[in-house]
Amino acid sequence: MGRPRKDDDQRQGAAPPSLELVTPLDVEMAVPEPGDWQADTIGEWRSWWGSDVARMIDPDSETPIVRRVFDLLDQAAMFEAAGRLEPMTEGSTGQLVINPLLKHAQGLRDEARRDEAVIGRGPSRRLALGIKFGDAARSLDDINRRLGGNSSGPAPIPKDDPREAIEVREA
Q: What's the rounded Cα separation, in Å, for the pair 126 and 48?
């Protein structure tokens, strides 16, 4: 006959792991020193470390991953700036081709994007990791209660609702 079916709450993935703050909100977080980067990258670095997402990681062990992301983004910005000076160059047979510096910059950005997913940089990445802030943190039950329903089903139809006046005809 086979194994009995598991309860819904016991199935794999039924209860995604909840991530907690490593650095509590009431504790000031020390921002690691940025690398030798451009001013824009340094600004992004400081902004990221000031965000709630940065409180989810262990600064001692995971700063190298964050540093790698920003290093890749800084390099990409430098290559893009140089490549934009001459976006089309002459290829090996004399044809016009996209400047290889721009292609290299895109490769660096793609690599940084993979690391950004690991650290939860960006709204969709945070949600994918289960990091929820603001309205995204409200459960379906909370939303139902706010809308006047209950947690066990849809909200009741008010008595003066025009849908109640519709006659149901049997075929």
A: 13
25-58 tens-digit pLDDT: 667 788 899 999 999 999 999 998 988 888 878 8
pTM of the predicted model as reported, rounded to 2 decimal places:
0.62
d(CA 19, CA 135): 17
Given a contact cutoff of 8 angstroms between Cβ atoms, the answer to whether 114 and 81 are in contact is: no
Helices 100-119 + 59-85 axis angle, to 10: 160
DSSP string, 28-57: PPPPPPP-S--HHHHHHHHHHHTSTGGGGS
Identity at 14, one-letter amino acid code: A
Taking a C-beta distance cutoff of 8 angstroms, is the pair 69, 119 a contact?
A: yes
